[in-house]
Design brief:
Helices cover 49% and strands 7% of the residues. Helix 2 packs antiparallel against helix 6. 14% of the residues are buried. The N and C termini lie far apart (62 Å). A hairpin with a 5-residue loop joins strand 2 and strand 3. It is mainly alpha-helical. The strands form two sheets. The chain has a three-stranded antiparallel beta sheet with strand order 2-3-4. Strands 1-5 form a two-stranded parallel sheet.
């Protein structure tokens, strides 16, 4: 399809990089899904899923807070506060929500074959970025050399100047070039794509691909948000009685799963402890 040349959308003769179904799914999601926005007030270590989950009944975001029971004990809960929703003010314990979310991540754990595939991609991207860094640094050093030559030329010219005004102009120009050289020198970085950094990055990728649930459970808030964004394109919808149900993983994760063949690479969920769906939705009455 190329509207500029009045070429309508049509089936091609070559093999596509992705299937038409995947392409249409990506386009639909790009056009229809609302962007996820995390407000500063919702960015909270105590409730890492706040701003990421919606009530399945009214499609509004769940909020989260601590309920205080008798004796001053605090209970972390997720709750729907949407007016006229049948689940308004009915809460779900944080432990139940996060336990079910970890179940989703466990179900999305990818196979060793898929990790090897992603490792090969990382290796290629890393090598290319390293080549580009070397090229950029070479250009920057040449820029420094040229500017230093310009400083030498201006300094030599200034020796022939008798006017204090013109001498001041030359001095300002030399100072400006010196500042430019300093900025370029500070921008040269030869430590981004070292072997040590590659090993660290590879370890992080391995954790994300093979153990997302463990990484999310033990990670800081930034790591948890990153995993949520990677594995789920849209905000998850949660039912007060049945939990998350069947969640739709991101296009990227689906693509990794289906890239090898039609058989899924997802871990057999029969080997995973059954999820604990909550049998009730209640406010704290302790």
């Amino acid at each position: 399809e190329y509207p500029k040349w009045e070429i309508s959308f049509r089936e091609g003769f070559h093999d596509g990089l992705i299937s038409l179904e995947t392409f249409e799914r990506i386009q639909k999601r790009r056009k229809s899904r609302e962007p996820k926005r995390y407000s500063k007030s919702g960015y909270n270590e105590d409730f890492p899923l706040r701003g990421h989950i919606k009530c399945t009944e009214c499609n509004h975001m769940l909020t989260a807070s601590f309920n205080t029971g008798r004796g001053g004990k605090r209970y972390p809960r997720y709750v729907c506060n949407q007016k006229n929703c049948k689940y308004q003010y009915k809460s779900i314990s944080k432990d139940d929500v996060e336990s079910n979310f970890l179940g989703l991540l466990q179900g999305a754990r990818l196979s060793v074959d898929v990790f090897n595939f992603t490792e090969a991609i990382l290796d290629e991207v890393w090598s290319e970025n390293k080549r580009q860094e070397v090229k950029r640094n070479r250009i920057k050093r040449q820029t420094i050399t040229n500017k230093q030559k310009e400083i030498d030329r201006i300094a030599e010219q200034s020796l022939k100047v008798t006017s204090d005004k013109m001498l001041s102009v030359y001095e300002k120009k030399i100072e400006s070039l010196g500042n430019e050289i300093q900025c370029v020198e500070e921008s040269i970085n030869e430590h981004n794509f070292t072997e040590n950094n590659y090993g660290t990055t590879l370890k992080q990728v391995r954790s994300i691909v093979q153990s997302p649930a463990t990484l999310w459970k033990n990670g800081d808030l930034t790591t948890r948000r990153a995993i949520q964004e990677l594995y789920f394109d849209d905000n998850l919808r949660i039912d007060q009685k049945n939990g998350f149900g069947t969640a739709e993983y991101s296009v990227l994760i689906d693509g990794l799963v289906s890239s090898d063949d039609e058989e899924t690479h997802l871990v057999d969920t029969l080997g995973i402890e059954p999820r604990t769906y909550w049998l009730r939705a209640s406010c704290s009455t302790d």
